[in-house]
């Protein structure tokens, strides 16, 4: 084989090897496949309510704290109408499946003044935080008094030494002063007052002996206003506390000139937190049609000291 032929064959072989090798693929770095993305499921907060409000029902929640220090208060009694719960370790409370309408929210804790507010429950989530003030008679924390230590004794200055003839030495005897040294006064320690618990209700409620109810007709129901009186007939004007109410309203019928209860119109329970605080009893169209100029009522008021005042008779509707 001559030289030109060998050269031609060698070049053809090199071209065939180059055609089988892609220089781009040969020099391209291999990138590892990305790991599959894992979507993290949202972690529910420990304070999140357990369920959504049902249709037509409300959900109320919030936290209870100290109005001054903003410290969250656990174990606080929270009432909403006839329901009652206690706040957890983070001061959180919640009410579920609440009927829409006005309701009384009452918050009580030992050492704090009770708080009562009227809330309008809507068929949705609602948040109502509550801050409690320290009640009357509860001492606030005071700054500690500065510690009084012993009075330091000053070091005595060295006495002078005199050189006498002959090499002897002598130390003069100090002259005692006749003026007495005044003792450093020690400040008196002020005793820290012992905190006393605040009452959970207005003490004037202890004077309540008699009750009465006044009814007023409204477009969508009837308004009830329960009042308390002393034994001498004077009204009890109380500012805070929880009085539980259980009531029954019925048609008033007359039998031989004596009024008696007829068909039941409505019944239920509620709470009042101060005197002269009426609440609206909502009635449907059928119940409104049963109302006349008078109604027969039977109710029981349970006072904070557990005494009960009951009354049943015919009442006029204004």
Number of helices: 3
Q: What is the architecture of the domain at 203-316 at the second tier of CATH? A: Sandwich
Shape: elongated
Structural class: mainly beta
CATH class of the domain at 203-316: Mainly Beta
Describe the structure.
The protein is mainly beta and 318 residues long. Among the domains are: 57-132, Immunoglobulin-like; 203-316, Immunoglobulin-like (Sandwich), CATH 2.60.40. It contains 3 helices and 17 strands. The chain has helices at 3-20, 23-27, 285-290, and strands at residues 57-66, 77-80, 83-86, 92-99, 101-108, 115-121, 125-127, 130-132, 162-163, 169-170, 210-218, 221-229, 243-255, 258-272, 279-282, 294-302, 308-316. Strands 1, 4, 7 and 8 form a 4-stranded mixed sheet that branches. Strand 16 and strand 17 form a beta hairpin. Mean pLDDT is 75; it is low at 22-32, 35-53 and 137-148.
Task: Summarize the model shown.
The chain has 318 residues and is mainly beta. It contains three helices and 17 strands. Strands 1, 4, 7 and 8 form a four-stranded mixed β-sheet that branches. Strands 3-2-5-6 form a four-stranded antiparallel β-sheet, with no helix packed on it.
For the structure shown, list the relevant keywords.
mainly beta, four-stranded mixed sheet, 3 helices, 318 residues, Immunoglobulin-like, 9% helix
Topology (SSEs and partners):
Blueprint: H1 3-20, H2 23-27, E1 57-66, E2 77-80, E3 83-86, E4 92-99, E5 101-108, E6 115-121, E7 125-127, E8 130-132, E9 162-163, E10 169-170, E11 210-218, E12 221-229, E13 243-255, E14 258-272, E15 279-282, H3 285-290, E16 294-302, E17 308-316
Parallel strand pairs: 1-7, 1-8
Antiparallel strand pairs: 1-4, 2-3, 2-5, 5-6, 9-10, 11-12, 12-15, 13-14, 13-16, 16-17
